[in-house]
Amino acid sequence: MKRHLLLIASMLLLLAGCRKDDPEEIIPDDTPEEDVVTASLEGGIQDRWLAGDRINVFSTSVPGGEYSFIGNGSFTKKNESGASAPSSLKANYAVYPYSESNSLNEDGTFNVVLPGTQPYLKNDISQHVNTMVAVTSGVKDSDFKFRNVCGWFMVKIYGNFVARSVTLSGNGGELISGPAKVRASNASVPSVTMGPDAGTEITIDCGSGVSLGFNTAEATSFWFAVPPVTFSEGITIKAEDFEGNVYTKVIKSPVKIARSTKGLPLDEQGLVLPEIVVKPLKFVSSGQTSLKLVKSGSPAEVPLEFSKDGRKWSSYEIGSSVSLSDGESVFFKAAAKSEGFSKDASNNYHFESSGPGTLAASGMLTSLVNSDDKSFSIPSEGCFHSLFKGMTNLTEGPTLPDGEVKKNCYAEIFSGCSSLTYLRAMFKTAPDASFTSGWLSGVAAEGIFVMNPDAAWKAGPECGVPEGWYIWDIPEDDDPVIYNSVDYLRPNPSMGSNHIQANQLNEDDPTEWTFYTTGTDPYIPVEGLKQDAPGPIFVFQYKLTSDQRFELFWCPGGYPNQLAGGRETPFMVEESADWNVCKVDMAESWEKFGWPGKVGDGVRFDIGGKADQTIIVRLMHWRARTPFD
Q1: pLDDT at residue 497 above 50?
Q2: How far apart are CA 27 and CA 41, in angstroms?
């Protein structure tokens, strides 16, 4: 059974600065003396030159142009093209990093481009990012003393996703990247004026991805080089993963970044959850397949985009085929908000697929009409009529979201999908024929139908769900959503915990607890049940720094009733930096220790057996057995 996990992450913002001590690479110097200049650094986050560093030199007394680092603070001329300084300036000028676009004006100001995209480097500013300038004391001086142009801003992020990028912007639209003019002299520090075409964002490009630490102590650092600026209305930090999900932190207090210094501490630091994101419709291929969206009749005109990696998006031409190899994915989403999509059986958009392989769909259908709508609303009647009709190689359908439904919006949507065996329908409205006519006709005889645990209806043949399908009307074990109908277990430190610190750091998830062990035999009581347990399967999601032995001590009637040695059930939980699921069948223990699972019954939760362990737990509850346990 496939599990669809809505990623939830937290961010902790900090500001700091000091460059790690990378060793200077020394290159043998056999260059003629007249083609060599010397260069020193102001210090701060960049305190030494590295192999591959290059500078622009603008001069009247030494050959100008591109110079490369050769060790011992020396740079040698790399090309023959000159870069002369205006004779009126009476000095030599240089700028780092080298760029063909760098230039020097008559008034002694540099034209540079402050990078809007900066590569990720662990615990550091990336090479060729920290813009610096130098002006000598006269035309005969070839010793360049470089000064920093920017300040440095460090963000710490933790969560259960792999970051594709992290972006900084000011809430007041401040210009912080792109074309800029830098004024410098031998006697004063540089100043920056951003050009009219400058940008309002700086993005750290994480390349193939950066796996984040999963708690505050192990948060991952991202460094930005930022021109001196005061973000008068605060800042926004956005982290994006490889499926297009964006996690956001907004700081409303003013933030000042000064030249050649670390940022000042923020007034608002802490943990936040991401914004709700609309996941694009996604297909994953098992084996070779081909997929296209076809137009029948005269439905509304809709602009769509597609992507193979969830990162780079291109306009999609209706009817064009996308070929997928084994394991490849393709994403679709709306390029602009649409008030409609399909209309009826004769006027619709529908996917067609071919090839020997199979396809599994996920994401949100509503992303096809509005990729920014977090209410997951369906804009028109018949909106997704026949969307996957006849796709005989579709094995899993995307989530039908918890949003308002419209007449015929899901009519015949999976009709003829003879390989379909899994579907999540999260709407709470009973699916009568007014919007689901023929929606599951001709699907596989057996499958799994997952419905919203808070829905006030039961799925079955009367709703068009095949009789042979298993109805999963409880939370899936890896589902991160909190449901009102579930009695989530609540640890209670005030009842007598031992060698454990328990904190609720996530204000938006009252079921999430972060435990830190301070000695051997750490444990914490759990409050008694508020309602009878639906079954003996003990489930929770967790993050854990190392493999640990957990135990439940059984207390019928509530803690600490009958608490004694020999009344415990041990189980092992494996290390996991990402959210993982622990599931244990406790039926034998219920019977052995006379624990009936009734209102008021409690347990003591023993978490590991040693100090200095961090364990994060959420959504702890009891559930009934299923055929898949």
Answers
A1: yes
A2: 19
